[in-house]
From TrEMBL:
It comes from Enterobacter chinensis. This is Polysaccharide pyruvyl transferase family protein. Keywords: Transferase. GO terms for molecular function: transferase activity. It holds the Pfam family PS_pyruv_trans.
């Protein structure tokens, strides 16, 4: 229901293939309970990798973004995390969550988390073998890559909104600023209800061109649209744009963007800006300079050598 998951998995799979070039990879969906077939496959594999940004939270008995329970720990091989994150700012994990994660996460391997906030909360469960590597979507955004991302505004822009973080007043100001700053404006549908939300904004959306809710369409728009920036509330759409060497301005709507900005200098701005402030940012020069934890990334990879 959220095409951003494909952006995450594309990058995670790429990194896993680099680390394990000669092994077969089997996919288990994190949003569904492990099935009888899944249990059979667990007996055949060597190790699980948990990939995703919001897989963990402080009450995993009731909120199952990663849909597992204590019973699953009896049938699953050890799990190693890759760029996982904590969903929203929350209280410390409860006892059930702490026990579950200590049981299912490998004690022999180093776990990769997406930011310092996740590292802090995961350590509070008793899991200590952790490195903050950032999300694997960012791992190739090194200095050589970032220097190829334009600093000046392009003629056109692709933007996104978030169906579960609606604010018609703030988002209307944002769109008005885009219209005053760019020639052609495209909207990419990343989430299931993003388009319905856009339509609810009325006459403001006239002349906006729609990009279908497929990653291939978004990639094509980034690659084939002449002189285009990205701006919007969808974090991984912004990271995908940077992967494609496009200037990206991400509007913060949750802890993921805020923590990535703190840790890695991701180009994130407030969603509470005025029309004039948005226009000033869009029309100004902006250098992309991602600060990657290269040693932590390499140490996580080296454990499998």
């Amino acid at each position: 229901m959220n095409v951003g998951d494909f952006i995450i998995m594309d990058s995670a799979y790429k990194q896993i293939c680099k680390t394990f070039p000669h092994t077969q990879k089997v996919h288990f969906p994190t949003h569904e309970r492990i099935t009888r077939v899944g249990i059979k496959r667990q007996r055949q594999i060597s190790l699980n990798f948990l990939c995703g940004t919001n897989c963990l939270n402080s009450s995993m008995l009731f909120h199952r973004q990663w849909n597992i329970g204590m019973l699953n720990t009896l049938f699953m091989k050890d799990t190693v995390t890759l760029g996982v994150g904590w969903a929203n700012y929350q209280n410390n994990p409860d006892i059930y969550t702490s026990l579950l994660l200590r049981n299912i996460l490998s004690k022999k391997h180093i776990h990769s988390v997406r930011d310092s906030y996740t590292e802090k909360l995961l350590r509070s469960t008793g899991v200590q073998n952790i490195l903050n590597t950032g999300c694997p979507t960012m791992w190739d955004l090194n200095n050589d890559h970032c220097t190829q991302i334009p600093s000046r505004k392009s003629k056109n822009v692709i933007f996104t909104l978030t169906d579960y973080r609606k604010d018609s007043i703030k988002d209307s100001i944002f769109i008005r600023a885009l219209k005053k700053s760019y020639e052609d404006i495209y909207f990419w549908i990343q989430g299931a209800n993003d388009y319905a939300y856009l339509q609810s904004l009325g006459n403001l959306i006239q002349d906006i061109k729609i990009i279908p809710a497929n990653l291939s369409d978004f990639d094509a728009a980034l690659s084939n649209t002449h002189s285009v920036d990205y701006a919007g509330t969808r974090l991984h759409a912004g990271i995908r744009a940077m992967q494609k060497f496009k200037r990206s301005i991400i509007l913060s709507v949750d802890n993921r963007a805020e923590e990535k900005k703190k840790d890695f200098n991701l180009p994130v701005i407030s969603r509470d800006l005025s029309l004039e402030e948005y226009i000033h940012i869009f029309n100004g020069n902006m250098t992309t300079n991602i600060s990657l934890p290269l040693d932590n990334i390499q140490n996580w990879k080296n454990q499998f050598s």
